């Protein structure tokens, strides 16, 4: 063996290293393309129609109340109204049930133009403090809501907990109160793993500037489900969070009286607040996007199939011989 071949770094030949193992190498003929487009269209359009039908069966009531719950004398200065502790924040709203709503009926609050996904806001908490009762002093990333004026650690610390939503809703129909069940509204993984059952709120909302709701210091964080729901931050500036569930049916054309405590200050940044009552189906809440997306893709595929058929019939092109493809040619000996 000469010196040149001895020093070569060329690997030993194998069918694996040269990618010559048996494999399916399809040739996209007009027949294959037309069949594929028709199959996709035939599958996607019925799926889209089924999804739209399921979404249409969802009964949803949406009521924006942030503007209506401001007295006329404060219409040009809503922020001063919401920040004044002496003003009465109670507001009465009336809702009409368009169609029968079968329990469970989910009650949401919806906020718009609220950027929970801001990097500084998302980081403003300490996961170890939320889990471990011995980690009360772990307040990294929580500034400026880390310590009280007398240097006591705040539990839970950070801007997310501090800005906890604090509007409340009381619903009634036919003069009878509708019970809103607030148990089981948070993810089980959060209540069991992220929030400790031995961790209790301490010195929360005790500063000079109150950001939102207060917490009962006798209840551990793992049972403070409003807080847990709020601290699972939203990815988009417009979002809904679960407030509770109504476990009784509501008949069509029934009137619901809502007593709103309009406490949360969205007026500072031009946000919107809405109360949402919604049923669900197998597809979830009301959302036409999935059905429209399936129908759109299926329609495009059928349109492309028809175009390919017309081109293939009226302007056919001669196909190449697949035997000349590199993987079909016989190796030269």
Automatic annotation (TrEMBL):
Chloroplast recorded as keyword: no
Q: Which InterPro entries match?
A: CDC50/LEM3_fam
- Which Pfam families does the record match to this protein? CDC50 (PF03381)
Q: Give the stretches traversing the membrane.
A: 32-54, 292-314
Name the PANTHER family on file.
ALA-INTERACTING SUBUNIT, CELL CYCLE CONTROL PROTEIN 50
Assigned protein family: Belongs to the CDC50/LEM3 family.
Q: What is this protein called?
A: ALA-interacting subunit
**Gene source species:** Artemisia annua
